[in-house]
Design a protein that fits this description.
alpha/beta; two-stranded antiparallel sheet; 9 strands; 10% strand
């Protein structure tokens, strides 16, 4: 090994040529050589980065095509359906009266929202009279979104505007009085409600009210206490009472279950609904209208209250699985599971 190096001849001419080239600056400076090397390296690295960026871009594009595009198509189709639906419903609404057109516009929007978001439907609409007064008594959810849908559908399909009774705290909200006058929402004394029914109108009342909305749960127990106002109204106006219940209402919106004593005490002090509410889930909602309970002068308000409460409890027993389940209510959008008789 050492011999091969020792036997290697040194060429003096080559050495002299290298020295001359170095003196003339033919060879690059070591610093310049480092710059060239780094430039080549950076170009290679940047090329790899650009390649990776293009790969990610194509991956994002493919993901959008397979995941996001169907959502956009569904949303666009729903928008088209909503536009056609509103056009069909409101074609002649504004030709007769401005307020009637405005009410039908709001009703059409609510009806479309219920159809798209909850697959909302009403069973037993034939129990709502076409030209006679009636008092509708319903179960109050955490947010009574079902009564908005039901009022809209009744107004659109039967051309009857339902008057409703709202809690007094709502009328303290600025601007609510104007809205309430347009959609016929009233604070509701016994005499006021009786007069509305005597004018051949429909009236909807929830005896549980805000209390039932805040402190009810997935077991759907009526929380009417000893409220007899609606029974006195029905007996005074001599009208039939129609029970109403909406399936899965507590699964669409729920009030929190913790701190019940604290929220109850706070409500008793303020008479203002402060219990936190969560939800907005696109569960299946179906309103069931029971058979009318005819006017009977022999009944006392207490007896009529018990009779109406029992009619609503029968609707709950027949159509609602207890306890309510959000997941099951979501599945019912595509598959209606029959309620077992033992439940």
């Amino acid at each position: 090994m050492h011999g091969s190096h020792e036997n290697k001849k040194i060429n003096p001419k080559r050495i002299n040529r290298n020295i001359a080239n170095a003196s003339r600056g033919s060879y690059p400076h070591p610093h310049e050589m480092c710059i060239r090397h780094n430039t080549r390296l950076s170009r290679r690295v940047s090329g790899e980065l650009v390649g990776e960026k293009w790969k990610r871009s194509w991956a994002e594009l493919l993901r959008s095509l397979y995941c996001d595009l169907p959502s956009y198509c569904v949303g666009f189709s729903q928008y088209i359906h909503l536009s056609l639906y509103l056009r069909h419903r409101l074609r002649h609404a504004y030709e007769t009266d401005f307020w009637d057109g405005a009410r039908k516009t709001v009703a059409a929007v609510w009806d479309a929202h219920g159809w798209i978001w909850h697959g909302y439907e009403v069973r037993g609409m034939e129990n709502i009279p076409d030209d006679a007064p009636a008092l509708i008594i319903y179960y109050h959810g955490a947010i009574p979104i079902d009564i908005y849908y039901f009022m809209s559908k009744t107004f659109l399909y039967k051309n009857r505007l339902i008057h409703t009774v709202a809690d007094r705290f709502l009328f303290k909200i600025p601007g609510f009085s104007i809205i309430s006058e347009a959609v016929k929402v009233i604070p509701g004394t016994v005499q006021t409600c009786s007069n509305i029914l005597k004018e051949n109108s429909l009236l909807a009342i929830s005896p549980g009210g805000v209390y039932e909305a805040q402190f009810g749960n997935a077991y759907y127990k009526l929380m009417w206490k000893k409220r007899l106002g609606f029974a006195k109204v029905a007996l005074d106006a001599k009208v039939s009472v129609i029970p109403m219940f909406t399936q899965n209402l507590r699964e669409a919106f729920r009030s929190v279950g913790f701190g019940r004593r604290f929220w109850l005490k706070l409500y008793q002090l303020t008479r203002f609904p402060l219990v936190p509410i969560y939800g907005g889930f696109p569960v299946k909602l179906c309103t069931h209208i029971g058979k009318p309970i005819p006017y009977n002068a022999s009944l006392t308000p207490e007896q009529l209250q018990m009779k109406v409460a029992r009619a609503i409890e029968e609707l709950i027993e027949e159509h609602q699985r207890i306890p309510g389940s959000i997941m099951r209510a979501l599945v019912e959008r595509v598959y209606q599971m029959p309620k077992k008789k033992s439940e």
